[in-house]
Specification:
Largest sheet: none
Helix content: over 70%
Number of strands: 0
Number of domains: 2
Distance between the termini: 23 Å
Structural class: mainly alpha
Oligomer: single chain
Order of helices and strands: HHHHHHHHH
Strand content: under 5%
Number of helices: 9
Radius of gyration: 19 Å
Length: 260
């Protein structure tokens, strides 16, 4: 029941997952980019609270805010609520007083993305459901129902390659890997199907994935002594595996749809 609700991207469970992914990813990745080396637990607390509150606000007021009318409306309200939550959060989370402009910009950006995705998922699911109703069968969300898989592929690849030695570092590696899976999904689940049978395209995607893996590894530069190898080399391997697994999964889903 819960997995089917997640397959329908405009459901309440999917909305919470969408918001959690956005807030947790950027609430950890942006501080890491600025050299943060503390434990992830305070950042996670901020992210989870903000994610839950924003979904409650936007979903309960979804139609009143006319977020069903367009992505830009969802992005607008998402950005506004993201900024408001960061401003209010300063009263409860002392960490938000460090680099306040960074946190404000981060909250606006995350909010924009969350709001836009909530609007997009609602509109896209309605189109699928209306089309299915006209054809007299139940809605089939296709590969869109597998939208969370790339997160898992990326997180698993990064954890296997980096082998973090502490729970805190494992959280950072998991989040960065999962977010890398989002980029990989563009080349796997949502790229043109004609690409998926091309060996040249696969090679190009793996090269790009490896390079992006190297870039992502610099988020761990302050933890370099905790890894069993050069973090940039580990990043290249993790990126390669992330893009390879998501590409192969995307190819499998495309073949399944073609023979359905």
């Amino acid at each position: 029941m819960f997995s089917s609700a997640l397959g329908r991207r405009s459901s309440w469970p999917s909305s919470f997952v969408t918001s959690l992914v956005g807030w947790i990813s950027f609430s950890l990745i942006v501080p890491l980019a600025f050299g943060y080396s503390g434990a992830p637990w305070p950042l996670l607390m901020i992210a989870v609270v903000m994610a839950i509150l924003q979904v409650l606000i936007l979903r309960l007021a979804f139609f009143a805010l006319r977020m069903d009318r367009g992505l830009w409306i969802g992005a607008l309200w998402g950005g506004l609520t993201g900024a408001l939550l960061i401003w209010m959060g300063e009263q409860f989370f002392s960490l938000l007083h460090d680099r306040p402009f960074m946190w404000l910009a981060n909250g606006i950006y995350i909010g924009l993305a969350v709001g836009a995705f909530l609007s997009y998922f609602y509109r896209d699911d309605r189109e699928i459901e209306v089309s299915a109703q006209k054809q007299g069968h139940s809605p089939q969300y296709g590969r869109d129902a597998h939208w969370l898989e790339p997160f898992a592929f990326g997180a698993l690849a990064y954890l296997i390659v980096f082998l973090p030695r502490s729970p805190g570092l494992a959280v950072y590696v998991f989040v960065v890997g999962a977010f890398s899976g989002v980029f990989a999904a563009g080349a796997s689940h949502f790229s043109p199907d004609r690409w998926k049978g091309s060996k040249v395209m696969l090679l190009l995607i793996l090269v790009v994935g490896s390079l992006l893996g190297v870039l992502s590894s610099f988020l761990f530069r302050q933890f370099a002594s905790e890894f069993r190898g050069h973090y940039w080399l580990l990043g290249a391997i993790a990126g390669f595996l992330t893009y390879l697994s998501t590409f192969l999964r995307g190819r499998s889903l495309a073949k399944r749809e073609a023979h359905a």
